[in-house]
Amino acid sequence: MRRFALLALSATIATFLLIVLGGVVRTMGAGLACPDWPLCHGALIPPLEGLVLVEYGHRLVASIVGVLALAVVVAAWRRGAYRAHSALAAVLVAVQIVLGGLTVRTELTPAFVVAHLGTAMAFFAALVSLTARAWLHDVRPVRTACARLLAIAAVAVFGLILLGGTVSATAAGLACPDWPLCYGQLAPTLSGRTGIHVAHRLAAAAVGLLILLSAACAHRLRPARPDLQAGTAVAVGLLVLQVLLGALNVEYRLAPGVVVSHLATAAALFGLLVLLAVMASHSAPVPVPSGSAPAGDALRARRLLAYVALTKPRIIVLLLITALASMLIAAPGTVSPWIILFTLAGGAASAGAANAINQVLDRDIDAMMART
Predict the structure, then answer these.
(1) What is the CA radius of gyration of the chain?
(2) What Å distances lie between residue 161 and 37, 63, 126, 157, 271, CA to CA?
(3) All residues at 6 or more sequence positions from 286 whose CB lies less than 8 Å from its CB, including other chains
(4) Is the torsion defined by CA of 149, 155, 160, 163 positive or negative?
(5) Dihedral sign, CA of 55, 124, 253, 257?
(6) Closest of 38, 33, 27, 26 to residue 55, by C-alpha
(7) Taking the chain, what is the end-to-end CA distance rounded to the nearest angstrom?
(8) Contact 237/272 with Cβ under 8 angstroms?
(9) pTM score
(10) What is the pLDDT along the chain (372 residues), one digit of tens a residue?
(11) How far is Cα 265 from Cα 47, in angstroms, rounded to an integer?
């Protein structure tokens, strides 16, 4: 089962990379660099230069994902486990292939572009769920309110991603030239592209509230479920990052690096919520005493998230917000998006390491405090 879980994990990671690469294709305008399908300029391997290389690379990675998905389906049916999940993944792959061809043949019709994105995200969710269930196969399933809330949040993020794809496909990304207001108003005229853009912002606010409620629900389960507490804290961090990237999309006039980062963060947040929903629907494993048999895969996965909790991710989010605000105030509209990305990533790593070391050094006095 562990080998099957690793195979499913490989397919999941490859699918995430494919989604991000699809965003690169979109932002670079390479969607029609190969004007025909399934060939490219009438050849199996066209001249790999310029935008053709980007689009052809996307198709090549999609082929690899298809092979991995087929391997997952075959392994699931041979093992006699998770056949429904694997069959769903196979159907979604077939639909995605058809939509990919239609997207090219209809010259990027918005409806097909959004459907293509939605099917990719649904396939990604199916693989995340399959991987998590395979990894937790030895843990007892259980119904919890937090699991239902996390599932609702995941579905809401999926809808938000579709709405974001509509914003991109209809060229409504800059329909509101300012942020967080729109033309200096809280409620501008909701028509045409402006209405689509504002709807995306309002939906993002509602989704953010759902994620915060999920984090609060997981927080109430401590100390029994430190894995859920850490996971939802990371989800809140990704939510804050996503909001900041949305603002930077307006500030930097849809700079490709920011747009792709916005899509990648949305996919990561969606996948994390699906993962947490599956984890919350399984009971916490009994801790293994010192000197006993090695812990199972499920316990190791939860311990990994406990290490994430050790870095105090919620505090890190506050530090990153102040760092980003300082950069934007000091040089509004002139700071490179890559400088912002690397600064925030380095700051998160440094702060997380400092928090973890602090907790290790203070473990003796923390043990005497009621709060800790």
Answers:
(1) 22
(2) 26, 24, 16, 6, 12
(3) none
(4) negative
(5) negative
(6) 33
(7) 37
(8) no
(9) 0.81
(10) 778 888 999 999 999 999 999 999 988 888 888 888 888 888 888 888 888 898 989 999 999 999 999 999 899 888 878 888 888 888 998 899 899 888 888 887 889 899 999 999 999 999 999 999 888 877 777 777 888 999 999 999 999 999 999 999 898 999 998 888 888 887 777 788 999 999 999 999 999 999 999 999 988 876 677 778 888 888 998 898 899 889 888 888 888 888 998 999 999 999 999 999 998 887 654 444 444 444 555 566 667 777 888 888 878 888 888 888 888 788 776 777 778 888 888 999 999 999 999 988 998 998 898 877
(11) 32
DSSP class of residue 49?
Answer: -
Phi and psi (nearest 5°) for 43?
A: -130, 150
Give the CA diameter of the chain.
72
Q: In this structure, how many other beta carbons lie within 10 angstroms of the beta carbon of residue 37?
A: 14
Distances (CA, A) of 249 to 145, 163, 176, 239, 329: 35, 16, 11, 15, 16
Give the DSSP letter string of 328-353: HHHSTTTS-HHHHHHHHHHHHHHHHH
Query: What amino acid is encoded at 87 in this protein?
Result: A
